[in-house]
Specification:
The complex is a heterodimer of chains A (115) and B (115). Chain A contains no helices and eleven strands. By secondary structure, chain A is mainly β. The mean pLDDT of chain A is 94. Chain B contains no helices and twelve strands. The chains are: A mainly beta (115), B mainly beta (115). At the A-B interface, β5 and β9 of A face β6 and β11 of B.
Chain lengths: 115, 115
């Protein structure tokens, strides 16, 4: 299994440009999410989804859009990139339900720089 | 809202020695999950250990163990027989039991392992 696959791994944008970070998982996980990691701030939740057609905002959603048309894919869109969006982005997924602490599985991360 | 606090930005341990990383959290819930993740320089997020709050027994995974003090809302990670490969950022994280519950991270502790 590939697990959680994120592309691209690195991207440089100019202020005002748009782009999409791709995320795909092959584990049939219902829950998918996007986090950003900034120095000294840990990981903060941007958006999440509990299934196809269902998305919701996390702590820091401004400037980002998501959609969930299939169980496997959860792309993150930056509509008009700003330098404040320079960060490392992680996609993560997990199962929903069951009796245990379903673990969040992370992608390898995408480093985005906005000039 | 739940918060997770890691009060040690950096720690250092000698190879083969034992080190304990601290984590406290704030919640009003009685059932929840706690996790420690490791992030090496590759930036991949790797699960180290998990604890379910309803279980009184402390979780153990090989050289890694936790001291879970529910009343004190404390969840420390002990690494025994430290190895050079343990050098990484360590994040403590909390999640409630709901379907859409998010993983809330602390700000991390950078562990250095010296010879």
């Amino acid at each position: 299994n590939a697990g959680v696959t994120q592309t691209p791994k690195f991207q440089v944008l100019k202020t005002g440009q748009s782009m999409t970070l791709q995320c795909a998982q092959d584990m049939n996980h219902e829950y998918m999410s996007w986090y950003r990691q900034d120095p000294g701030m840990g990981l903060r939740l941007i958006h999440y989804s509990v299934g196809a057609g269902i998305t919701d905002q996390g702590e820091v959603p401004n400037g980002y859009n998501v959609s969930r048309s299939t169980t496997e894919d959860f792309p993150l869109r930056l509509l008009s990139a700003a330098p404040s969006q320079t960060s490392v982005y992680f996609c993560a997924s997990r199962l929903v339900g069951g009796s245990g602490a379903n673990v969040l599985t992370f992608g390898a991360g995408s480093r985005l720089t906005v000039l | 809202a739940q918060t997770v606090t890691q009060s040690q930005p950096e720690m250092s341990v000698q190879e083969a020695e034992t080190v304990t990383l601290s984590c406290t959290y704030d919640t009003s819930e009685s059932d929840y999950y706690l996790f420690w993740y490791k992030q090496p320089p590759s930036r991949q997020m790797i699960l180290v250990i998990r604890q379910e709050a309803y279980k009184q027994q402390n979780a153990t995974e090989n050289r890694f163990s936790v001291n879970f003090q529910k009343a004190a809302k404390s969840f420390s990670l002990k690494i025994s027989d430290s190895q050079l490969g343990d050098a990484a950022m360590y994040f403590c994280a909390y999640r409630s039991t709901g379907t859409a519950s998010k993983l809330t991270f602390g700000t991390g502790t950078r562990l250095q392992v010296t010879l």
